[in-house]
Please model this.
Amino acid sequence: MTPHVHDHDSDHSSVYDGLVGSDPSHWAFGTDFEDPLAGVDTTLADGVDGPTLAAYCLMLGDDALVYSHRLSEWCSRAPDLEEDIALTNIALDLLGQARLLLARAAAADPGVVPVLPDGSPIPPEDALAFFREAGEFRNVRLVEPGNGDFAVTMVRLLVFATWRLAIMQRLESSVDPVLSAIAAKAVKEVTYHRDYAGRWFLTLAQGTDESRRRLLAALDLVWPYRGELDRVSEVERRAVDEGFGVDPAAVAAEVDVVLEQVFSVSGVERPERPALAAVRGRAGRDGLHTEELSRMLAEMQSVARAHPMGRW
Amino acid sequence: MSGLDKLARPAQDDRPAGREWPLYEVFVRGKRGLNHVHVGSLHAADDEMAVRHARDVYTRRNEGVSIWVVRSDAITASSPDEKDPLFAPAGDKVYRHPTFYDIPDDVPHM
Model:
């Protein structure tokens, strides 16, 4: 064995060597990526209706997709480098969930996928993301409006992550093995999102007069979107009956308990603001959206739509 | 439709000058690593936030299983001026390297 003498320069050029092992040229790629669907049986379980499963996956997938895009708009604009990366990490987590859910929707019912020119290399989940009109999206309206300031962003993230975590925890026992695997991955991710937003909620509430003023104003803006999360659409009702979906009304109380805890430690009252109304009985799950979704999609989809034969 | 962005963002960072968050040094232990390795630094308001920020900034690519953070001003460092008296004397002590032993192949971590 020869003496191992470090030279100063190489110590600095390979700071990640000790972390990622053998090939130093690959440190930037990290290690050991896992396929969340590895070994998962993708056939439909008995009693599961393909089109209903597809419609349900679009709902959860569109929530993640639209909100991911909103959060990604913070990229390069957050108050600090550290928060910038934290927010974009969350956006990427949600984009990953959206991709898996939209792909599952397409597999469960190919009829939901927009038709592209023959020979287009665009995969079905991308076709769903970039080639549907606003009226075909099934997300709740909470995720649509622009980000507002940092306080509005944190309040919306707290409400969204608290609700989605409650849904995903129950979805782990879905009879659809793919939904169950996606939920298992999502639970870990969204647990962190909730923790992150909850800490910031407390910090802003108990910080300066200005941070508290902004937080309370943010809560008033976000709260009207809270009520829609408890609505149960016809698709969700059938998804519960067939054993693969979660009843949103059944998680409402749990979501409120968690939010009350955060409000309580932050010294904030639960807001008294009327819920955003459904329009002729229709809300986000039925394809009824705010104008802001159309504007967001116009930007998000413009490049893909200009190149329906594009390979990315 | 009144959007969530009704509240305008401030045009620029409105933190008072000189009130930057303190600097922290970050150490990460990898899956196969035995020790925490210094990977960089970041700003955070307190220790807990520093751990969260370290997770977000330095373990995005599955590098780590454990994080240490310490405020940079808590570190006492040697001075470059002392380089010769501190380190040069070790430069010619070849007998301190364990090169005169045969180490069996099955001894780990050597």
Chain A touches chain B at residues 1-3, 5, 15-16, 18-21, 28-33, 79-82, 85-86, 89, 145-152, 156, 196, 199, 203, 214, 217-218, 221-222, 290-292 (CB under 8 Å). The two ends of chain A are 49 Å apart (CA to CA). The longest helix of chain A spans residues 177-205. The domain at 50-306 of chain A is CATH 1.20.1260.10 (Ferritin).
